[in-house]
Write a structure and sequence with these properties.
Layout: E1 4-7, E2 24-27, E3 37-40, E4 49-55, E5 60-70, E6 79-80, E7 83-88, E8 98-103, E9 106-107, E10 111-115, E11 128-130, E12 135-141, E13 152-156, E14 165-168, E15 174-176, E16 188-194, E17 200-203, E18 209-213, H1 215-220, E19 224-225, E20 238-243, E21 248-253, H2 254-259, E22 263-267, H3 288-299, H4 315-327
Antiparallel strand pairs: 1-3, 2-16, 3-13, 4-12, 4-14, 5-10, 5-11, 5-13, 5-16, 6-9, 7-8, 7-12, 14-15, 17-18, 17-19, 20-21, 20-22
Length: 330
């Protein structure tokens, strides 16, 4: 496959564009912004496809598609390609059955093409039902062979998201983009209009991540919500980490903080404030749940109950826990 660097000066809607309503979300794997570099892939022949795996953050409908289309020099004629296809999720890198197909999309050179209608007269809006946490595949199928100086699909230069980008090569076989040497995410996006509560990833107090939570569910679990449509495989659960050996307060995930001998203050924290050692549930409150956790850990000789850190479990640990509990949280 051959790749050509391109500096993206602007992300502009070029085809059937429309302003996004407040309850619409653009789903994308790529991280491209205006001014970023991207790479053109003039590497497709007729019948091949570039596809991305996306997950709906809500019950609703797909109402639009966005595809970045560009040539190295610009000014190429409009390219009439085969189709934009929405598949069911399937098993990566193989999509499931076709859900919907937009035939003969006209792609204009130079920016982000947006499609909102099934017909060229713009009378039939795109409306493909999806449910919360439903994975689907969005694909561009080529009608023309892409030429070295002509326009084609682009991928971003910020690294590729694993198991989210694929290519249907000549002959019909699906391959992961990584296996073909593609170094970034295809700039192919879906616009979803939500009719139900939105879900996304949440960073929990122990540093783990959980997908498919509403903001209220994340808060109830003492976590930090990452926003609608986010997924654990694309975010890092960072928080403040105090490193006693150096006195530094920096941003790490829980695992890294533990490796460097630091004290982690939970996801989303930015300051290394005084710890609350008796808050074993890490919910910012001291109550019977913390006492219960301590007693369970003490009975199991769990190091978390070693409040006098000497490797022994005795009345000194109980006394130290009760003192910390009486002190309360800052």
């Amino acid at each position: 496959m051959r790749f050509l660097k391109s500096s993206v000066c602007a992300l502009i809607g070029l085809a059937a564009t429309s302003g996004l309503a407040g309850d619409e979300i653009v789903l994308q794997n790529d991280s491209l912004m205006a001014g970023d570099n991207a790479t053109i892939c003039p590497c497709f022949v007729a019948g091949e496809e570039a596809a991305v795996w996306l997950t709906s953050p809500c019950d609703g409908a797909i109402v639009g598609f966005q595809i970045f289309w560009r040539s190295l020099l610009g000014g190429a004629p409009v390219s009439l390609e085969d189709s934009i296809i929405v598949y069911e999720g399937g098993n990566f890198p193989n999509p499931g059955p076709v859900k919907e197909e937009l035939l003969a999309p006209a792609l204009q050179d130079g920016g982000l093409n947006e499609f909102r209608f099934e017909d060229e007269n713009q009378t039939i809006p795109i409306n493909i039902p999806v449910s919360a946490n439903e994975e689907f595949v969005l694909s561009l199928k080529f009608f023309n062979n892409s030429e070295i100086t002509g326009p084609s699909i682009l991928f971003d230069d910020s690294g590729i998201t694993p198991n989210k980008n694929a290519v249907r090569v000549s002959g019909g076989q699906w391959r992961s983009s990584e296996s073909l040497g593609v170094g970034g995410d295809w700039i192919i996006r879906a616009i979803v209009e939500c009719s139900g509560e939105q879900v996304g990833a949440a960073c929990l107090q122990d540093g783990s991540c959980m997908d498919g939570l509403t903001e209220a569910e994340a808060v109830m679990l003492g976590g930090v919500w990452s926003g609608p449509g986010t997924a654990c495989d694309t975010i890092q659960c960072l928080g403040a980490c105090f490193i006693p050996a150096t006195g530094a307060c920096t941003q790490f995930d829980a695992f890294t903080c533990e490796i460097v001998g630091g004290e982690w203050f939970g996801p989303g924290s930015t300051e290394c404030v005084e710890a609350c050692p008796a808050d074993l549930t890490m919910d910012g409150m001291l109550n019977f749940l913390d006492v219960s956790d301590f007693l369970g850990a003490f009975s199991a000789s769990d190091p978390v109950a070693d409040f006098e850190p000497d490797g022994n479990f005795n009345f000194l640990d109980v006394s130290a826990f009760l003192a910390a509990y009486a002190k309360g949280c800052p």
